[in-house]
Design brief:
Length: 145
């Protein structure tokens, strides 16, 4: 069974809610999903042993959270080339973080990314729950390609 790591950085808990819903979508599709707070990622070894990785951060002042930036530098050494990837995040008024994470995973890490990053103001607004679960399904489908 394919295994996906979903790592999130959050300040208010909304990005964690999205991470949990993305993981649900992955599980609905028959893959295993492990959801982890970014504070639990200490070394590149913590990113090993997964077929796919999904990183999420809220956007603050036009940027991803500092802990996500730090983890991305760590992830660069983890040998993620060719692994399935996705990026997501919660935002208030701008929402650049998921795009920047996605582009880093695609262009620097050379991961096999899904179609686009997922950007949600809230998992509870405007179909956010379904959108996050569908994003998880898209990740799981890419694992089977």
């Amino acid at each position: 069974m394919p295994k996906v790591l979903v790592v999130y950085a959050t300040r208010t808990g909304e990005t964690q809610s999205i991470a949990d819903l993305v993981a649900e979508g992955i599980r609905f599709s028959g893959a295993e999903a492990v959801v982890t707070n970014i504070n639990d990622i200490k070394t590149e070894a913590d990113l090993q042993g997964y077929d796919g990785l999904v990183f999420g951060s809220a956007t603050y002042h036009g940027d991803m959270m500092q802990k996500m930036k730090t983890m991305l530098f760590l992830a660069e050494k983890a040998g993620l080339e060719g692994k399935v990837g996705g990026a997501f995040g919660a935002f208030g008024w701008s929402g650049e973080a998921p795009d920047r994470i996605f582009d880093t995973m695609k262009n620097i890490f050379k991961m096999d990314m899904v179609s686009a990053p997922l950007r949600l103001k809230s998992s509870m607004l405007g179909g956010g729950t379904k959108m996050a679960q569908d994003y998880g399904r898209e990740i799981a489908a890419k694992l089977g390609e």
